[in-house]
Amino acid sequence: MLDTSIPVGLCQASADQASLRLISSGVWLVDLFVSFFRGYLDVRTGFVEMRFRRIARNYVTHWFMADLSMIVLDAASLFFMEDDTVDALTLLRLLRNLRLLRLLKMSGRFTILRELFFTLEFEMEWTSVHFATFAGVLQHLGVIALLCHFVGCAWYALGGITSAEITWVKAHAAFRGEEFSNSAGWFYFYMTSVQWALTQFTPAAMDVSAVNTPERIFSVVVCMAGLIAFSFFLGTINQSFSKLRSLTAQETRQNQLVRRYVGDKRVSADLSREVLACIRQRGLGKATGKVVFSDIKVLQSLPGNLLCRLQEEVGFPVLEQHGVFKYLTYLSLADVARMCHKALRESSIIYGEDLFQSGMPGTAMYLMQSGRMHYSWDQAPQVYESVLPEQRACEASLWISWEHRGRMTCADQSAHFFQVDASALHKIMGRSEQRDLLAMYAKTFVKTLLEQYGTIDEASDLYGDDEVVAKILTPIRSWQAGIMSFMPGASGTVQLRACFLAWKTFVRDGSGREGHAQWFGRLANKLGELGGRQSS
Questions:
Q1: Residues 51, 39 contacting (CB under 8 angstroms)
Q2: Which CATH number fits the domain 127-267, given the four candidates 2.40.128.270, 1.10.287.70, 1.10.150.530, 1.10.8.60?
Q3: Which of 193, 266, 329, 467 could form a disulfide bond with 152, CB atoms 3.0-4.6 angstroms apart?
Q4: CB atoms closer than 10 angstroms to residue 178
Q5: For the chain, what are the domain ranges?
Q6: Where is average pLDDT lowest: 117-121, 123-127, 190-194, 361-365?
Q7: Where is 417: in which H helix or E strand?
Q8: Which residues span the membrane (predicted)?
Q9: Closest to 75 measured CA to CA, from 34, 28, 36, 31
Q10: This model's pTM is above 0.70
């Protein structure tokens, strides 16, 4: 990498240059082995290939021979050639010129750099506008510095490899010898070359200029390219600062209006401070909030099959946070997939917004993903409970007609959550073979809720944590195992002992006659299906 970015080795050899060439060769030798483990983008599948065998096969069939040849040339020029003869020095320069073929491989690094800049621009859209503007300016300055680096290296190489009697390197070295009576090192000439390249992008001048025809041609080409590049980067930077001034002026104007309003209305100092703090927090919440599906319009135009796969891959981990849906994935994966398509919705709110208020009808269960919510009851509005990520609220809305008993408010800059729509869930499970299981879970959920609170009106929206769900699911799993035990096993026999244990658990739980009848009905249906298959 070093010999492609700083072509010092193209000039006369020295101890420092020999060390630099040795480091450069070591870097490329390490890169030869690392390339066997560096993944690549498979254009046929669109995925990054990370399997060792395929990476090695791809590398051997593409860049391996070129890299190995360059390393052999490096070794030959460093250890098997002497610089004290003219013929050897000429051949050495020819071999080192061949190493410039590595610039072709460096083009892949530019692709990575371009993807990095695109990612930074995307991330900056969701951060502070001041930081985004500052980072954008630094990005453009970095690109300018990188261009000056490569142009300076080419300028230095042009002054060192041409056969002309006079070059800018020789002229400047002679000038330094006359003025300062000392010779400059390669680093001085490198920085001089970078400064010369920078003056081609900006209206500035320096004491180095072209002294022969090839250097004049190169200067003209660089000046024309610099004229376009300088105009582009200068316009982009000015646009960034103009956008910052516009957004800052709007924000400042709104804050001034708020201060004037609370001053004219003689609002108390404490309330005024809370209003301004809320406005500031809401602004930060909009800038740092999570990206949700509804924010990306292009995703809604995806083909149906691809959109369903995306919803399933995002939704399955979310639904499995609830025990009953995780258990349902083992029994009917298609039902849970339909929930991801129809019943699961992604949302986010910012500081101070209410998710629901007391008296509103409950229409969904909420699964927290990030941020923090505060839930307060009507009976004690000053006392609140925190709802944190991986917790949920309003599960009762899924199983009974529910009315919210309290108020849920975003207490963080932003809160990200998924909601399971009750009506969509009922439609999906109404056509499912597992509807009896969900009905049994719903009945047991309401029963445990009444046992804890006495009446539904006294219940909390936060009822139904993992401990409650696990307690409800334990007998349901036993009943399901009892039903499955009537199916023939590997030996073709019915597991009556497992059925008896399931029945014993069911009776001990104390379910009503209606539960018995439903259980027997399901057993009769399963036995009928089994008998029909055996008779056929």
A1: no
A2: 1.10.287.70
A3: 193
A4: 8
A5: 1-122, 127-267, 302-535
A6: 123-127
A7: strand 414-421
A8: 20-41, 62-81, 131-158, 179-197, 217-237
A9: 28
A10: no
